[in-house]
TrEMBL record:
PANTHER family: F-BOX DOMAIN-CONTAINING PROTEIN-RELATED, LEUCINE RICH REPEAT FAMILY PROTEIN. It comes from the Eukaryota. Gene3D superfamilies: Ribonuclease Inhibitor. SUPFAM superfamilies: RNI-like. Signal peptide: none annotated. This is RNI-like protein. Pfam families: LRR_6 (PF13516).
Length: 357
């Protein structure tokens, strides 16, 4: 069962060292139908030495006779997931791999507790790599200085389109460094910074960057205590930004003021299609403000307002707005104070409307 869940991780283990390869190859081969990439396994088997091949005899594996007929694994691997990358030696090996690989597009180095020196080595490799388009570094305890190193890489790298740094500790300074990079970077389209203690200062810096950045389409800033002030700054940015389509702001203590500013944006913003505002203590007044906005907005496809202290009256108002709105496809209202009768009425309306799922 474990093998079925982390199959991609096992493929990555083959590249760490020979001991890992000895453990991973039998596991991969023991249930070949769950991944189906026999060519990749043959490539891995072809580089085993005599001692390692002997360990595979109990599994009755037919080893390849002509290793040269298969492509080098460094050139065919497109997705690489590595867990527990500890120490400079392993980081240097990974960096060397990044220099040589000509096909890798997705690199996942999450859950590794990367140190400054380790990250520095990887950043240097990323500055020269021209194939990676997606990089995931969540759960690495990265601090503000390490975020600054990543920001520097964004100045030079022109291929990464998706960057995930969720669940780290980059703080306000790290957020500001990344925001500064967004003024220059013209390739990044998705940036995820959930759970990073950005606070209003870091959130404000990123909001200001949105006023000038013309490539970012998705920004996730959930659980960063951005505060009402940060919500207002983001709202002002959305009046100017013409490319952002997805904005995730769940659990940011936006409150009434931040929520009101964001609701007013939708009278004029014509690009944002997905907005996530769950758990922000918006309250009844802001729920009504969003209902009013839905009468005018013609681009929003998904709106998430879960756990925001809305009541049945507000929810009815939102439902009424949908009589005029023909673009919204998804409206999330769970965790609010909605009575059974209202829930039933809305359910019937949604079935009739056939626009909301």
């Amino acid at each position: 069962m474990i093998l079925r869940v982390i199959i991609k991780v096992y493929f990555s283990c083959l590249l760490v060292n020979r001991q890992w390869c000895r453990n991973a190859v039998p596991l991969l081969w023991s249930d070949i139908e769950i991944h189906g990439n026999k060519q990749l396994l043959r490539v891995c088997l072809s580089v085993l030495n005599a001692e390692e091949k002997a360990l595979l005899k109990p599994f009755e594996i037919i080893l390849p006779n002509n290793p040269n007929r298969y492509l080098n694994i460094l050139h065919i691997l497109r997705l690489f997931t590595l867990v527990q990358l500890m120490g400079l030696e392993n980081a240097q090996s990974l960096a060397e791999f990044l220099y040589k690989n000509t096909a890798l597009s997705f690199l996942n180095i999450s859950h590794n507790q990367l140190h400054s020196e380790t990250l520095k080595i990887l950043v240097e490799a990323l500055c020269k790599n021209t194939t990676i388009t997606s990089l995931s570094l969540d759960y690495n305890q990265l601090n503000s200085d390490e975020a600054k190193s990543l920001a520097e890489a964004l100045y030079e790298n022109n291929t990464i389109t998706s960057l995930n740094i969720c669940n780290n500790q980059i703080g306000s300074d790290g957020g500001k460094a990344l925001a500064k990079a967004l003024y220059e970077n013209t390739t990044l389209t998705s940036l995820s910074l959930n759970y990073n203690k950005l606070y209003s200062e870091g959130g404000n810096a990123l909001a200001e960057a949105l006023c000038k950045n013309t490539t970012l389409t998705s920004l996730s800033l959930g659980d960063n205590s951005i505060s009402p002030e940060g919500g207002k700054v983001l709202a002002r940015a959305l009046y100017k930004n013409t490319t952002l389509t997805h904005l995730y702001l769940a659990n940011n203590q936006l409150g009434t003021e931040g929520g009101k500013a964001l609701a007013e944006v939708f009278h004029k913003n014509t690009t944002l299609t997905h907005l996530y505002l769950g758990s922000n203590e918006l309250g009844i007044e802001i729920g009504s403000a969003f209902a009013k906005a839905l009468y005018y907005n013609t681009t929003l496809i998904s709106l998430n307002l879960i756990y925001n202290k809305l009541n049945s009256k507000v929810v009815k108002t939102l439902a009424e707005a949908l009589h005029n709105n023909i673009t919204l496809k998804s409206l999330w209202l769970g965790g609010n104070n909605i009575d059974y009768t209202t829930s039933n009425e809305i359910r019937k309306f949604l079935i009739w409307n056939k626009q909301i799922f």
